Amino acid sequence: MSGGAGGPSPDDAARARREERGRAAAKRSRSAAGGIGAAWRALTADQKLAAIAAIALLLSMLLPWYQETGFVNVKGRVQPLDDSKNAFQVYSFVEAAVFVVSAGVLALLFARGRRRAFHLPGGDGAVIMGAGLWVMFLIFYRQLDKPDGRREGLVNISVGVEWGIFVAFLLGALLAYAGFRIRAHHTPEPVADDVPPGAAPTTPAPAPAGPADWLAEDDTTVAQRPPAPPREGARIDGELAVDEPAEYRPPPRRS
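The structure corresponding to this sequence follows.
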């Protein structure tokens, strides 16, 4: 059924909505790809090495980590079993921790590439180096504590490790090395674009002068005033005044 006169039909409106959703999805995809590319270009060489190690570590979980060997009962017949399994097929705390560590390192580096300003204890290098060492410890522990096999009647299966787990161990060492290089080079944490610059340093005002301590100023010298010249007619020390009678001395007696 067509629409009213001059109006779009329902089919045309639905088609327009689908095209609009498709354009919006394509725009989001281009924006996400551009964001990842911009973040990658903003990273330093050591940070890119850490990102490559984390991505390779995630991909190594798809490699054969374990080998199942033994015998199984198939329709009443015993048949040999030789099957390889990756880390996701034999899932435990170790495999989950390796996945979380790799994803966490990638999230950290993506945030740094997008200029997200935050501080981590010890810095990014120490955190990434610790993540790589933790992965190495987990994989080493997993080689000692392998998944359990099955022993039920005619079913006898044992589990060993495959070459993929050793690749993951080496990638954990590479991740730790990249973190060490970031820490050694003192890669600064980025400052976000929306953070206002710090205020210009101002000269501190001088401290107010306290009350003068006149008693403590012992070194103060007082200028001596010169003596005033004697007035006219004034008596000088040792000089008799005109109107002062002289001392009377009787004449000596004659014998």
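Confidence is low (pLDDT under 50) at residues 197-202.
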